[in-house]
Amino acid sequence: MPADPHDLVVVGSVNADLVIRVDRRPAPGETVIGSDLETYPGGKGGNQAVAAARLGARVAILGRVGEDEHGRFLTEALGRAGVDVSGLLPTPGPSGVALVTVGPEGDNSIIVSPGANRHVSPADVARAGPSLEAAKVVSLQLEIPTPAVSAAARAAHTAGARVVLNLSPPQPVPGELLRLCDPLVVNEHEAAFLLGSPHRTDGPDHRERADRRQRAKALVALGARSVVITLGPAGAVVAQGPDVIAVPSPPVEVVDTTGAGDAFTGALCWRLAVGDDLVSAARFAVRVGAAAVRRPGAQSSFPTRAELREL
């Protein structure tokens, strides 16, 4: 990967999303008929890189793809979107694959087979050191091994880049990694996982809002420098020190929520890279996330700046 400066370097997963739409999800042991299979470029790392690139960011990605047809498909799709793929390493074996089921309300269920993503290593991060050192923001997720994520966070922090960690899929992470996050980005389920508490949505709206504020403060207390909790159609909450600020989302008709969280995070990272404060960046990012649910697929649904102005 060259040392030319980027607004954003994404260290993360690249997957082929295999998507089927269903009227209802099967119960255990049951078979249901779904739509024709559709294949989209995806993976949390790839999605965040494309989301930022569509908006005009200079983006590079560090990761791995398999030496298979999916790997070629994914590399070409990222390149067409304007992402620097010189740090995307071909790896013997299969590429990562996500099996995505989309329900009638546009909600999704996902199973990920990591494939080449499981081979991203601290050594890969070390080889990409010049690019990480030149980046303004480094975005991380957890679809690659935690040692590589931690190594990237340390390298970025040492170089003065801002570290953004999306705790997805949720899993335990070292306290050292949390302390480098600025912000830690989680949805409500991921926040509950990290705090070891149930995710409640059965109370009055005012109680839910209070719970969200308390969760955001509790995550900051765990060590993260700042926290963003995404709330789907309700927008997001941003916590910095003692301050917790609600950021509403525009109402939209939901077609497919696949990749909406990645669209949010990619947009957030780009706006942080160009100098926005965290609340302003989150206000922009919720609009991008809302725009992304209006079309099917992940990367195929991400808006350009011109499309975002229509929202």
Task: Give your account of this protein's structure.
With about 300 residues, this protein is α/β, with parallel strands linked by helices. The chain has helices at about 45-55, 70-80, 120-125, 130-135, 145-160, 175-180, 190-195, 205-220, 260-275, 280-290, 305-310, and strands at about 10, 15-20, 40, 60-65, 85-90, 95-100, 110-115, 135-140, 160-165, 185, 225-230, 235-240, 245. Strand 6 (about 95-100) and strand 7 (about 110-115) form a beta hairpin. The strands form two sheets. It has a nine-stranded mixed β-sheet with strand order 5-4-1-8-9-10-11-12-13, sandwiched between helices. Strands 3-2-6-7 form a four-stranded mixed β-sheet. The model has no long low-confidence stretch (mean pLDDT about 90).
Keyword list:
single chain, 311 residues, alpha/beta, 13 strands, 36% helix, 23% strand, globular
Beta-strand content estimate: 15-25%
User: What class would the helix/strand composition place it in?
Assistant: alpha/beta
Largest sheet: 9 strands, mixed
Q: Report the count of strand segments.
A: 13
Tell the overall outline: globular
Strand order of the largest sheet: 5-4-1-8-9-10-11-12-13
- C-alpha Rg (nearest Å): 18 Å
Overall average residue pLDDT: 91
Roughly how much helix do the residues carry, as a percent range? Answer: 25-40%
Poorly predicted regions are none
Quaternary structure annotation: single chain
Give the topology.
Blueprint: E1 8-11, E2 15-21, E3 38-42, H1 44-54, E4 59-66, H2 69-80, E5 83-91, E6 96-102, E7 108-113, H3 122-127, H4 129-134, E8 137-140, H5 146-159, E9 162-166, H6 175-180, E10 184-187, H7 188-195, H8 205-221, E11 227-230, E12 236-240, E13 243-247, H9 260-273, H10 278-292, H11 305-308
Parallel strand pairs: 1-4, 1-8, 2-6, 4-5, 8-9, 9-10, 10-11
Antiparallel strand pairs: 2-3, 6-7, 11-12, 12-13
Helix pairs in contact: 1-9, 7-8, 9-10
